[in-house]
Amino acid sequence: MNSSSKDLMRVHVWVSGRVQGVGYRASTWDMAQLLKLNGWVRNLRDGRVEAVFEGAPEQVEEMLRWCHQGPPAAIVDQVATEQEPPEGLKQFEVMRSV
């Protein structure tokens, strides 16, 4: 593990509820930029939003707290998370739905 990745945290997230068609992905991008996180966000066919966040542990934890609320029009039912080894992502992007 190199020195730049040892202080990073990576969390894979699946958000369910009314989270598509309410600006969840765009708001996630905005929040990730604010918190200086890298990763990605996308819609899933089953109605959930999937995301990966990499960055300083404090910022990742703040992002996870935000995910439980989302943008004003969202109704979040559940946020499932899985910690993963950081990959050293360099930006945050909104990916195509799958």
Detailed description of the structure:
This protein is of the alpha+beta class and 98 residues long. It has one domain: Alpha-Beta Plaits, CATH 3.30.70.100. 22% of the residues lie in helices and 37% in strands. A five-stranded mixed β-sheet has the order 4-1-3-2-5, with helices on one face. A hairpin with a 5-residue loop joins strand 2 and strand 3 (49-55). The N and C termini lie far apart (31 Å). The mean pLDDT is 94.
Task: Note the main attributes of this structure.
5 strands, 2 helices, single chain, 98 residues, 22% helix, Alpha-Beta Plaits, alpha+beta, globular
Structure summarized in a few sentences:
The protein contains 2 helices and 5 strands; from the N terminus they run E-H-E-E-H-E-E. It is α+β, with helices and mostly antiparallel strands and 98 residues long.
